[in-house]
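Milestone 3.1: sequence recovery, worked example.
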């Protein structure tokens, strides 16, 4: 009788362990690998909760955030290859504060971060990498962003309504600067998109098929 009870207890224990294991797999799973670097469900949830990654338009929120993660890992590999100057400590402090302040008091922020499985050092590392990426991309594309006179003229003609404020046309200098900003922004988006496409083609990116997801 005792042996039967013991065997039953062991079976129950095994079933509980299987249930816990299955639950752990649901809670966290690998969503993608980028040249061997893992992106997990908890990574996506953490950065989404903290407002560090945002969904884009035209796709599901989860897929969009995962795309941002993949792009970030690809770009960081490039950044690490060329080693731009380290960001200033006060710039890191300011960015980290912008992430942590909405979480409440320092104790509340630490508690909320702990629930996500990270800490303030993790936040500071994330924003440091943000600044490194910003410095690298600005340096990489700076020379290619300046528009030509023809591009500015085309922008004037195609977006005339943008150069009117309260019924009055902007001054020539204001018009030129506004057109320059918009043309540079559009060119930057196109250049960065092409660059990221190239990084994706050269990388080994694996995303599990949806049918394999729990």
């Amino acid at each position: 009788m005792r042996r039967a009870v013991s065997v039953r207890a062991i079976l129950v224990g095994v079933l509980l362990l299987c249930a816990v294991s299955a639950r752990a797999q649901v809670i966290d799973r690998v969503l993608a690998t980028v040249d061997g670097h893992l992106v997990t469900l908890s990574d996506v949830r953490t950065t989404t909760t903290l407002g560090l990654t945002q969904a884009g338009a035209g796709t599901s929120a989860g897929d969009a955030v995962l795309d941002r993660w993949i792009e970030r890992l690809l770009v960081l590999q490039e950044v690490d290859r060329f080693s731009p100057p380290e960001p200033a400590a006060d710039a890191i402090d300011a960015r980290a504060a912008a992430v942590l302040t909405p979480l409440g008091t320092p104790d509340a922020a630490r508690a909320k971060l702990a629930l996500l499985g990270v800490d303030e050092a993790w936040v500071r590392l994330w924003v440091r990498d943000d600044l490194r990426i910003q410095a690298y991309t600005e340096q990489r594309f700076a020379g290619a962003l300046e528009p030509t006179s023809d591009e500015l003229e085309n922008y004037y003609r195609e977006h005339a309504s943008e150069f009117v404020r309260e019924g009055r046309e902007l001054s020539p200098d204001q018009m030129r600067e506004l057109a320059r900003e918009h043309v540079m922004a559009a060119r930057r988006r196109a250049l960065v998109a092409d660059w990221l496409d190239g990084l994706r083609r050269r990388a080994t990116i694996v995303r599990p098929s949806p049918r394999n997801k729990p």
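The helical segments are 2-27, 41-49, 61-82, 89-100, 106-116, 120-145, 149-158, 172-202. The CA atoms of residues 44 and 66 lie 7 Å apart.
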